[in-house]
What we know:
Layout: E1 24-27, E2 33-36, E3 39-41, H1 47-56, E4 62-64, H2 65-73, H3 79-92, E5 101-104, E6 107-110, H4 118-134, H5 138-150, H6 163-168, H7 170-190, H8 194-207, H9 212-224, H10 228-246, H11 252-262, H12 297-308, E7 315-319, H13 326-336, E8 345-349, H14 361-371, H15 383-394, E9 400-404, H16 409-412, E10 423-428, H17 433-439, E11 442-445, H18 451-462, H19 464-469, H20 471-480, H21 485-497, H22 503-512, H23 515-518, H24 529-537, H25 542-551, E12 559-560, H26 561-568, H27 572-584, E13 589-590, E14 595-597, H28 600-613, H29 616-641, H30 652-656, H31 664-688, H32 691-708, H33 711-727, H34 731-747, H35 751-768, H36 771-788, H37 791-804, H38 811-827, H39 831-848, H40 851-867, H41 871-887, H42 894-907, H43 911-928, H44 931-947, H45 951-967, H46 971-987, H47 991-1007, H48 1011-1024
Parallel strand pairs: 7-10, 7-11, 8-9, 9-10
Antiparallel strand pairs: 1-2, 2-3, 4-6, 5-6, 12-14, 13-14
Amino acid sequence: MTDTASRSRNEPDATPTPASGGDTGFRLLGPLEVTHHGEVLEVPPGRQQALLAALLLRPGEIVSAPTLIEQVWGGDADRTVLNVCVMRLRRSLKDPNRELVRAEGNGYRIAAAPDTVDLHRFRKLCERAGTARDRGDPAAERDALHQALALWRGDALSGIASSVLQAEVVPILEEERLAATERRVDADLDGEAHAEVIGELRQLVADHPFRERFWCQLLLALYRSGRQSEALDAYRTARERLADELGIEPSQELRELHHRILTSDPTLLTPRPAEPSVPRVVPAQLPPATAGFSGRRDQLRQLDRLLDDTEPAPTTLITGPPGAGKTTLAVHWAGRHRDRWPDGQLYIDLRGYGPEPLVQPIEALAYFLRAIGLPTDQVPPQQAEASALFRSRIAGRRLLIVLDNAATVDQVRPLLPGGGDCLAIVTSRDRLTGLVAKEGARVLSVDVMADAEAQTLLSDAVGDARLAAEPDAAAALARLCGNLPLALRITAADLINHPQRSLTRHVDRLRTGNRLDALQVADDDGTAVRAAFRSSYARLPEPVRRLFRLLGLFPGSEIGLESAASLAGVEAAATEPLLDRLISAHLVTPRGAERFALHDLLRLFAQELGQEEDADAEREAATRRLYDHYSRVAVAAANRMYSFVVTLPLSEEAARIPVSFDDDTTASAWFDTEHPNLVALVRYAADRGDHLDACRLAATMQSYLHSKMHAVDWLNVARAYLFAARQIVDFRAQILAHLSLANLHRSRAQRNAAIKHFEQALALSRHSGWVDGQSITHNNLSGVYDYEGKLRLTVHHLHQALELRSPTRDITSKAVVLSNLGRALLRLGHVEDAVDHLERATNIHQRRGARVSESRSRASLGEALCELGQHHRALALLNHAVAVQRELDDRMFLPNTLCRLANAHLDVGQTDLAAELVPTAMALVRETGHRRSEAWVTYVTARVHEHTGCPDAALDGYAQALRLSRERGNGYLQVQAMIGMSSAHHQLGQRESARRCIDKALARARRFEYALLERQAEAVRVALS
């Protein structure tokens, strides 16, 4: 920046005595400088200077600790770091008694009068210039502006090491300087100092080529100095710069001035006449800001950008749910920047949502016109005329207009400025999309607070110490308030009024009592959360209100369009516009394509309204429709994805409407989206005593939860499933629930618990005469013995599964058993038989379109073909299986399939490809907690180390695999790990250790009839001899 402003006349002393008479002065308009009794104090650069600057921007005011930490450290520091920096700053300022920098409230205050700071003297002089202009004293106006700009010694906050201050504050200060420079040049031109300002203006247009006001002033100065041709040349330069670099034409003001110069308009030679001395009303109607404002950092930054835009939108809409703090945000920001609108700030509550009648536009216009000085008898009674007069009266002025609690677009439009330097901020619970579409309003959405912001709000209000003493209770308080600012402030007020009450006790009160009753201030119904919600709800038509009430019945986190339609009992096409109205009123939040959510407190409010306004029969019918919808769609998705799924019969109403999925990917995506809701619905149904519905829903989820390894949800659903099945004495449901729990324990290597549930399932199957239940149990039980390496017992249970299988069951159930039998036969060394079984299973799954089961059979077939030396075909099968399992997110089997593929790559010498696969497999195992697969992945990782020439790492890996397989009872893998350890010892030259390992492996392989491993061990033993 070129310091052009300092080359003006009547410059004051650069270090004037502070007007307050204090003995310390501060300078921010350039490099930071502090003087004390005429002596310059050295404040070390870095954090101390940044901290001092942050305090001096608001002299005499408390600046909160979070604000200081944000402005000085970018938010990356704690209170201790701030306190240490304050201590050092006091030392630099020779303030040992803490009289200058004082700790107050939740922050610090610098006890300096504003006129000891050059920035605030600059602003005061600019205000003095405006007053002089209003009273028709151009000489005083000119003198005040010259004095104001002389205070600038370079860039504001020059050298201050704060990215936040440099990005957010410095541009604002620079804009103030340039605006004052424009006013001062206007005053000089009115004082006929035309030639004197030409040089300065040439520099200004060079530094700020897109600031067209400077071009206008340069053209006018040249023309009035008798240099018309230079003025025309300057216009051509301006037009070319704007066109070449921005692709725009000059503004209307600049074009009109050019035309007047081109035609030698004689009126241009006459400076503007001094304005007559008339009283000027500067309204200051902003209500008091909320004490202890905190948070909303991102929204404040977005609002601050309005000040930086060269062509800001004249209207900004702050929209959000009731209680989100829209008004608080608007008033806080407006108050913080009130000096940017020297012609005043207008404010009106349009009462869009209160019990009082809405403020009509003509009422608001009359109020505003009187506020800016128009006598009451001159206010037009017609709305259109009053609106036009209002825009005319504020044209050319810098006014901020806050239109709070607007209900409709029609209520707002007549009150908007026509453009220029005025800004209107509208707050509303509705989206008011017409303002965006027609007026081009910018939208700033305000939702509930982030967790950290909610904690800061409570801390600022209640005190750090109180929250720090009970951090868990503080977090629970914020959650129970739903991070809603209104609820948080009410809770804080209650805690302040009861200083002896612990946070834990307050949490208990909110949890056990009526939370909406608790979230209001005594004797002030207007502050209640319920009242805020009700005022938005009351404005809606009954069909929309009914849907809102029914949404309170939904137990999940977010609901889809089809599910909402089932609650309402109408078609989705009719439900969508109702949801749109609720979204517009911010009573429902959109969460992606056709997904919607209710804030926790709004859910409570909807439930309360439903109990008050809807008959029990209607609520029961809606719940029944929801059960039927989810069970119907979930059965279709499960049948599409899993050939081995066994569900319970649907209700007659649910079965009446057929549902199908076109492919596995779509079905999987539906489960991925809806599975949290299904979990919630199962528990909700069980808690309500709707046990049959709980069983129906739980049955649809078992294969999905197993495949995706959602262990926590799997356990919760299976337990609820078993409990509900026992209540209705449904043996089939009990059997399936036991099988689900058994498979969960099996996947987590909890053998005894798994066997217990399998035995109960088998006993119930026999007792109830459900033969297919016995078949399913034998098939599942075989997996326990397969893992333990008890292969003969594994084969026995699988043959039982085939023999007991009902001929009426779907053929895919047979394919599942064939696939399991093929894997067991492979380990017993019957490779050709294994391939035969696996090929039959794969073909059945392929014909039936069961891609999940097909991919698992393909993976096992690929492993078997490797033993026959058919590696090319094996790699094709394994790559295909990996692709499908990744597509369908089959996390249960994908780690094993990746390891099989890695083994196949190692067999053909493709070590690099194998090394790329095992980290992904291990990451999946750790993510899902699938403990049975961990030892296997560890073993294959060791094989990769061995093949890459790292026998030490391989030996460690094999030893770890042996330890894990012993802990988890995997007999087959123990032998594999011993063979691997022997090979690693051999590579390291440790022949005796290698022999001991291979002897143990061979003995165990023979004992358990691991024919395949026996052959491998004998080959290693021969190599050692």
